[in-house]
Amino acid sequence: MTDSEIPGTGNGGLASESAFRGRRILHIDMDAFFAAVEEKRHPGLRGKPVVIGGAGDPSRRGVVSTANYEARKFGVHSGMPLKTACKLCPRAVYLPVDYPAYAAVSRRFKKVLLSLTGAVEDVGIDEAFLDITDMPEDDEIIAARIKEGVYKATGLTCSIGIAPNKLLAKIASDMQKPGGLTIITERDIRDRLWPMPVRKLYGIGPKTEEQLHALEIETIGQLAATQLEILVRRFGSSHGHYLYDAARGIDETPLVIHREPKSISRETTFQRDEKNWQVIAGTIAQLSRQVISDMAAKGYTARTVTLKIRFDDFHTVTRACSLEKATASDEIIRKTAFSCLRRVELKRRVRLLGVRASNLEHVESRMPGKVRT
């Protein structure tokens, strides 16, 4: 069966137009954002492959946060170990992550978006969704205004996708990078979406991709041709239904204009696997202070503290302790993290430590709670 012979609703396997509800959703994605910020403030980097991640030292542990397009030509991509990136592109300029600088630029470009509409969903430091359904201008005019405004505010370029829903808009914004504009309608799904590899669908990672390939499903069109019963049997009800709908371009997810964080966390990877208890304890105390600082900056207290430990064999354990009342007390958060530590046997060297505060509440009272393990 070919991608164009998909059984379904009498429309070649496509959902009816009513499934798209007439929405116009815009997704904006800044182009190689971290690297672009670095090139803007250090013009001598332009034209050179630039890789940003960790401490900026490819001989040490760390992963690539982003790479500019010159580095991507060598196969470097985000999430890759810095050591691997260095093997692929040893002549690249390696820089540490400067999050405060990137966050400052992010605020400037998002201010441009909010000047156009309040219907903005902030989904990351370098991307956002806008609902432009009720804006009278054509898609191209709106996109041009955003591109011009973002460039004036930051000196950087962005790519934009516009579609009837968030799923298709996000796919569209990635189709003509850098600096592109891609508009997808429900009529474009067969010719533009279905020939793509299944990995292009949001929510399909390496493991799901591998399972789909085992079913001889490599393109989105082939996924759309697969019976729902087969997908549910292989992936479960929830994920199976998602794959079935997503392959047809169906996504009714609303924009979340204000998103409350579920947790605030910090973690660190040791350059050498660590066995010294004092170093481990000192690191936990430092991570706790950083979490407290982040909570204070965002105006939250927490009722649960979780300690994450990854050992040298990559076995990872988590231990959580809850409080009777939410707190922002440095002392209590730190002591709670150590309460978690006492429930872990440190028989192996430690590779990674993390501290997470969850069950967050807006700051109303800072009365300390009592640890309940």
What report would you give on this structure?
The protein contains 13 helices and 13 strands. It has helices at 33-41, 69-72, 82-88, 99-116, 139-154, 166-173, 189-193, 206-214, 220-224, 228-235, 237-246, 277-298, 330-341, and strands spanning 25-30, 50-52, 66-67, 93-95, 120-124, 127-131, 158-163, 181-183, 263-274, 300-311, 316-327, 350-362, 371-372. The strands form three sheets. The protein has a five-stranded mixed β-sheet. Helix 4 (99-116) packs antiparallel against helix 5 (139-154). It is globular and about 60 Å long.
Percentage of residues in DSSP E strands:
15-25%
How far apart are the termini?
57 Å
Instruction: Sketch the major β-sheet.
Output: 5 strands, mixed
- What's the CATH first level of the largest domain? Alpha Beta
Outline the low-pLDDT stretches.
1-12, 364-373
Globally, the shape reads globular
Q: What count of structural domains?
A: 4
Name the average pLDDT: 90
C-alpha Rg (nearest Å):
23 Å
Let me know the CATH homologous superfamily of the largest domain.
DNA polymerase, Y-family, little finger domain
Q: What percent of the residues sit in helical stretches (DSSP H or I)?
A: 25-40%
Total number of strands: 13
Task: Find the structural class using helix and strand composition.
Answer: alpha+beta
